[in-house]
Specification:
The protein is of the alpha+beta class. About 15% of the residues lie in helices and about 45% in strands.
Amino acid sequence: MQLPAGRTGLGSAPGLGRAHCLSLVSLLLIHCLINIAAALKSPQILLPANDTVISKEGDSLRIECRAQTRWPRLHNVYWLVNNMFVEDVYPDGRVTEQSGGALAVNRTVEQTLEFTTVQSEDFENTFTCVVQDPSGTDVKHFNLNPENDGGRIIYRLTIKKAEKEPDSDRQ
């Protein structure tokens, strides 16, 4: 095929080839940046949600922290009590953390805070769930509140804002 004078290839008028090439490179760069941003989406705590009812009086108590992460094999989920590690606040083992590991569904991870019994001092504490992965951190602070529900006591978790964020260097 014979090209008209001044043309060096298909669809290229003088100077037009560079514009097409730059447009294509720009589109590819935008596409890559969008994919990178999606891959680096910070983890998100799914449970507990605000006003979650979790137990009756006298029963042991389990508070599950479930989070979604794009890094199910490279993450850290833990609980704090008044911005301190659980084992430091409850050295007697009355309250402990139990790892749920990574779940295959929706890239979720979990860590459970387990009380053998609930005591009045627990209502004064702030419980904090922390999830970290290479893309960031999510933190939720909760208070445990007893309520009378038609003659029986229930516990309700309510989200609260803490004055100071927990240190994020726990590995």
